[in-house]
Design goal:
The complex is a heterodimer of chains A (215) and B (456). By secondary structure, chain A is of the alpha/beta class. Chain A contains seven helices and nine strands; from the N terminus they run E-E-E-H-E-E-H-E-H-H-H-E-H-E-H-E. Chain B is of the alpha+beta class. In chain B, the strands form three sheets. In chain B, strands 1, 2, 4, 7, 8, 9, 10, 11, 12, 14 and 15 form an eleven-stranded mixed beta sheet that branches. Chain B has a two-stranded antiparallel ribbon with strand order 3-13. In chain B, strands 5-6 form a two-stranded antiparallel ribbon. In chain B, a hairpin with a 2-residue loop joins strand 10 (215-218) and strand 11. The chains are: A alpha/beta (215), B alpha+beta (456).
């Protein structure tokens, strides 16, 4: 899975001013790696993940994943790309509060014919990461660590090629943070997927050899 | 699976779902109750005229006539019988038939023993005797005018008139009763040779203890009861206590060849408004011409202006209800932009999200439409029990002291209309689905990142 960003620029227009970020960024992410994007808050890490995941479009430049220029894809093609290739772990988990953990996890596969098979598989993984007993709970009934694990399970239910994790340890204590990082490493090895982690935590960033410092 | 998810979504957002349901239900209820009431009222107003086989009723009102033993009721004035032929000759008219409604007194005030009348009733009797009283007794007088009073020695003198209607025995279709329309007849109908024969209303016959073959006094003539009719409780035009042959009624009234009510049946393609104008010209410019459409004004006292105002208010109310539904729907969707953003992020296609929103709105529209229609139906039933409607007095002019009341009550019977129910439910679903579709378009046009950012 080749991921390449060429001369990216993203412009946000507020009511008062224009904000330009990721100016001229070019980047190649190695296949099957765990890749860290390191930088302080507000520098554009989430934007970068959004661009790689086809959830946003650059103002200029190209995002090329497996030889496909994401900027050139139509809305339905991008949705298909996100569904088949991307697993996104949001900074604030972004779980739907009205759905139980298992329903949140099943959401990306809800309309698939093999949904039951996927759910069966993901439940086995739930046992491995120790939240099987919590699957029937609503997100607000879970701890931050449990929510993060639910978010990870939702991200991998469709066996993506790229997992994008935005500040995956931000709200967690050290023990939980270590567990999450361990899970991400395991996924990288088990699924053979690219895991891209955006973080401002030097300790997390230093664990992995592949990193890009956003400044 | 999507349906299950949509239902789960609706249940989990109870407050928003309830607001939406309230908006849809109120709009549906408002529409249904108004339509049901208007349709039922129209049906009730049409019934008396339809029962008489007519489309239009012609009468002449004017100065109340003076007292006589057989007189025209209240302010009803005579129409020359030739007017019937004139009306029949009008292009728009299919057929016309006249009748003569009279009040027939049996005991004149100067009969012996002289009645002792209460209060001003005594004065009225004296005025009648000396001829100075011209019209007052024909109008609503104080209770007791010409009514049963205590006579000397505790005897009761009955001064209440019998309401009799002279009908053409040859008439087949038109009139309060006719050869082909005799409700629950016991005995026989008129033959062409009958003169002092009467068909009595069953309530009147019971009150007077009269049976078929009995004789009774009507306007100081002796009539033979040949039959009784039971017209039920429905309002009647020219409903009577006694039906007699038209020629006999004319003879008893002694005012020449007259009728005081004409039933007109129009041709199917006729324009009622233009027919009314022609009928006026054929009878009198002062004629009171009533069609079922005029009843709404006559009965409820509504003028065209107020009816127009009502419709305008209804239109505005429905418009506001629709805007409320659209606003609620927009609010609901915009509130969910984060959720929609998440669905887009995890790979849902726009059309799948649209489908989800459509199903949710379909469920809301259907439940709201059904609940609103039922509520509207219930509201119209409450209206029915609280708003009495009566025929205008001149169409069935009983005296105020009559032994039993005129059958004037128009029963507004609210009938549930499946067609209206289906239309309202479909309209609720369509409006809700359309507003949901329009609202979701705005969010779906955003990138997943922008959509999740909207409420973050």
């Amino acid at each position: 899975m080749s991921i390449r960003l060429d001369n990216i620029l993203k412009v946000y227009q507020t009511s008062h001013k224009k904000i330009e970020i990721l100016k001229g960024l070019s980047l190649q992410i190695p296949d099957k790696s765990v890749f860290v994007i390191f930088g302080p808050s507000g520098i554009g890490k989430t934007t970068l993940l959004n661009l790689i995941g086809g959830m946003d479009k650059p103002s200029s430049g190209k995002v090329i994943v497996d030889d496909a220029d994401l900027s050139a894809l139509r809305s339905d093609e991008l949705a298909k790309f996100r569904k088949e290739k991307i697993g996104f772990i949001f900074q604030e988990f972004n779980l739907l509060p009205n759905l139980k953990a298992i329903d949140n996890i099943a959401l990306p596969a809800l309309l698939d014919k093999d949904m039951d098979e996927k759910i069966k598989r993901i439940k086995e993984f739930a046992s491995e990461i120790g939240i099987k007993e919590r699957l029937d709970h609503l997100p607000q009934e879970l701890s931050s660590g449990e929510r993060q694990r639910v978010a990870i399970m939702r991200a991998i239910i469709n066996s993506p090629s790229i997992i994008l994790a935005d500040e995956p340890t931000a709200d967690l204590d050290d023990a939980n943070a270590k567990k999450i990082i361990a899970i991400l490493k395991e996924l990288n090895q088990k699924l053979g997927c690219v895991v891209i982690i955006a973080t401002n935590d030097e300790k997390i960033a230093s664990i992995f050899p592949n990193r890009y410092n956003l400044i | 699976m999507l349906i299950k998810f949509a239902i789960k979504n609706l249940f989990s957002r109870k407050r928003r779902s309830l607001i939406s349901l309230t908006g849809i239900s109120l709009s549906a209820a408002l529409f249904v109750s108004t339509i049901f009431i208007l349709k039922s009222a129209q049906s009730a107003f049409e019934k008396p005229i339809k029962n008489a086989g007519a489309d239009i009723i012609v009468q002449l009102q004017g100065e109340p006539c003076g007292w006589s033993i057989v007189k025209l009721p209240r302010d009803i004035n005579p129409i020359p019988i030739e007017a019937i032929d004139k009306i029949r000759s009008i292009d728009d008219v299919s057929s016309a038939e006249g009748a003569l409604i009279v009040w027939a007194f049996s005991n004149p005030p100067n009969s012996q023993p002289a009645p002792i009348m209460h209060n001003n009733s005594q004065r009225i009797l004296e005025d009648i005797k000396n001829g100075s009283l011209q019209g007052e007794p024909c109008n609503y007088g104080p209770p007791g005018s010409f009514c049963g009073t205590e006579g000397a020695g505790g005897m009761t003198n009955d001064f209440s008139p019998t309401v009799a209607v002279g009908i053409n025995p040859q008439a087949n279709e038109l009139g309060p009763i006719s050869a082909n329309n005799i409700p629950n007849l016991t005995g026989r109908y008129f033959s062409k040779d009958d003169s002092y024969a009467a068909i009595l209303d069953k309530d009147f016959a019971r009150a007077k203890n009269l049976k078929v073959e009995d004789s009774f006094n009507l306007g100081q003539r002796v009539f033979k009861v040949i039959g009784t009719v039971d017209a039920g409780r429905d309002a009647k035009i020219a409903g009577a206590q006694a039906f007699i042959p038209l020629n006999t009624a004319i003879d008893m009234t002694g005012r020449g060849n007259i009728v005081d009510i004409i039933f007109v049946k129009l041709k199917p393609a006729a324009n009622p408004d233009s027919a009314k104008e022609k009928i006026k010209k054929a009878t009198s410019e002062n004629a009171t011409i009533t069609s079922s459409n005029d009843f709404l004004n006559a009965i409820s006292g509504l003028t065209n202006l107020t009816q127009g105002l009502m419709l305008a208010i209804l239109f505005i109310a429905i418009l506001f209800s629709i805007l409320f539904i659209i606003k609620t729907s927009f609010g609901s969707i915009l509130e969910r932009s984060n959720e929609i953003g998440i669905l887009k992020s995890i790979g849902w296609q726009d059309r799948q999200i649209n489908k989800l929103i459509f199903i949710e709105n379909l469920i809301l529209g259907a439940i709201g439409g059904i609940a609103g229609s039922i509520a509207g139906y219930a509201a119209s039933l409450i209206y029915k029990t609280n708003i009495p409607s009566m025929l205008p007095y001149y169409l069935n002019p009983y005296p105020p002291c009559s032994q039993h009341l005129a059958k004037n009550a128009l029963e507004i019977s609210i009938k549930f209309s499946t067609n209206i129910f289906i239309i309202v439910v479909l309209a609720s679903i369509s409006i809700q689905a359309l507003s949901g579709f329009l609202a979701s378009r705005k969010i779906l046009s955003l990138t997943p990142a922008d959509a999740t950012r909207q409420t973050q």
